[in-house]
Write a structure and sequence with these properties.
By secondary structure, the protein is mostly helical. The chain is built from 12 helices and 8 strands. The chain has a single domain (2-158, 240-379), classed as di-copper center containing domain from catechol oxidase (Orthogonal Bundle), CATH 1.10.1280.10. The structure holds 2-acetamido-2-deoxy-beta-D-glucopyranose (3 copies). The site of one 2-acetamido-2-deoxy-beta-D-glucopyranose has 3 residues, from loops. One 2-acetamido-2-deoxy-beta-D-glucopyranose binds at residues 261, 330, 343. Pfam families: Tyrosinase.
Length: 380
């Protein structure tokens, strides 16, 4: 639970609200791209979703402190509802955990593959919908514009530990740094930062995993990570990692990669070349357990804001050439083509396991009109 005791922290939150961020290069690109979207929509009706009816997902610090609390209260509500997946995952204790179960089970399919972008779009939308329909949340999924907090993430509205935050950094605990397999020095290590221990202002306790732990975590009783392993949320909020998520990197990701293969490759990281990319960069900015665990990362509630930003960046990229990019997927059906598989297509199926059935990838390509019109959102 969020501790509501420290006045100093509350004051910090108030100060953070007062903080304003001028539009960065990516914000400007998004705004400049909206006429393309409107023009496209005028010619191509989208299952009843129009520019006027599309809802807007907003940036975390653009929400008032009350709106942020409404969001975190809804997350806590999801954590208080009984799991649907406990038959297959005895460690799953809540509806929130259900989402971790699905991610754990499908990690290899949905990373470094055709499904990475469309599947995560579906996944985030489904979670947003659960917050709204099961927990009375009236807003929409907020996103984390990495650039705003990259210089000093631990003192940002996201991680300062105040009432309007997603909980604070972890307590400072000495550790060796976090190894990044497959990357050359110095990119083979996230250096230790000011946290590493338990988050005392945490939104959650963790029940599942670890599978690919980055800190010394008690092993899960089951090899698939789905047994019960209750523990605190740990973070090591890290500006070293945040440095690769600035608007500079994100803008060039969007504008320098016209083919979706390269857009996705640069976004997901080119580890042998020491390039983490914005996707891993965001995960490593939070770091710790389970945010740094490739399989279990949705158990840190900030995952959902990070992946909303991933989705936003794809949306901005798509707006640069809607005709083509709403229909473009690449890569194969398996992670890094291991084991070797065919190239994926728009007719491949993608689903959320026990949470939601399979749909064709083509249903997940447009934030406006996808999933038979259930997707109807843009980013503010
Ligand atoms: C979000 O906040 C920034 C200042 O932090 C402001 O420049 C921008 O206009 C806001 N956007 C919206 C849509 O309110
Ligand atoms: C901007 O991003 C590019 C890669 O896209 C990188 O090579 C360059 O060092 C970055 N510049 C700054 C100032 O971070
Ligand atoms: C699979 O996609 C790659 C590009 O991503 C392309 O070079 C290759 O020809 C495709 N293979 C087949 C069999 O279509």
């Amino acid at each position: 639970m969020i501790q509501r005791t420290a006045w100093a922290i509350a004051l910090l939150a108030v100060l953070a609200t007062a903080q304003t961020y001028p539009p960065d290069a990516v914000d400007k690109l998004a705004a400049d791209s909206l006429p393309n979207l409107k023009e496209y929509l005028a010619k191509n009706p989208q299952n009843g979703c129009t520019y006027e009816t599309a809802v807007k997902r907003r940036e975390w610090s653009n929400l008032s402190v009350q709106e942020r609390k409404d969001y975190t209260d809804a997350v806590l509500c999801l954590m208080s509802k009984p799991a649907l997946t406990s038959a297959q995952a005895p460690g799953a204790k809540s509806r929130f955990d259900d989402y971790m179960v699905v991610h754990i089970q499908q990690t290899p399919r949905n990373h470094g593959s055709t499904f990475f972008l469309p599947w995560h779009r579906y996944y985030v939308w489904h979670y947003e919908n659960a917050l709204r329909t099961e927990c009375g949340y009236k807003g929409y999924q907020p996103y984390w514009n990495w650039d705003r907090y990259a210089k000093d993430p631990s003192n940002s509205p996201l991680f300062d530990g105040g009432e309007g935050s997603m909980g604070g950094n972890g307590a400072k605990v000495a550790h060796q740094g976090i190894p990044i397999p497959g990357a050359p020095s110095p990119y083979n290590m996230i250096p230790p930062a000011d946290g590493g221990g338990c988050v005392t202002t945490a939104l959650s306790r963790i029940n599942l995993g670890p599978i690919a732990p980055t800190l010394r975590i008690t092993r899960n009783p089951r090899s698939d990570g789905l047994g019960h392993n209750p523990r605190c949320l740990r973070r090591d909020v890290n500006k070293n990692a945040a440095a690769v998520t600035t608007a500079n990197y994100t803008h060039s990701l969007i504008t320098s990669n016209s083919d979706v293969y390269w857009f996705q490759t640069v976004m997901e990281g080119q580890f042998p070349q020491g390039k983490w990319g914005v996707h891993a960069g965001g995960h490593y900015t939070v770091s710790g357990d389970p945010a740094g665990d490739f399989y279990v990362s949705p158990g840190d509630p900030v995952f959902w804001l990070h992946h909303a930003m991933i989705d936003r960046v794809w949306w901005i990229w798509q707006m640069q050439d809607l005709e083509k990019r709403l229909a473009q997927v690449s890569m194969t059906r398996t992670m890094n083509n291991f084991p070797p598989s065919a190239n994926g297509t728009l007719d491949d199926l993608s689903g959320l396991g026990v949470l939601a059935g399979d749909v064709k990838v083509r249903e997940l390509m447009s934030t406006m009109g996808g999933l038979g019109g259930k997707f109807c959102y843009i980013y503010d």
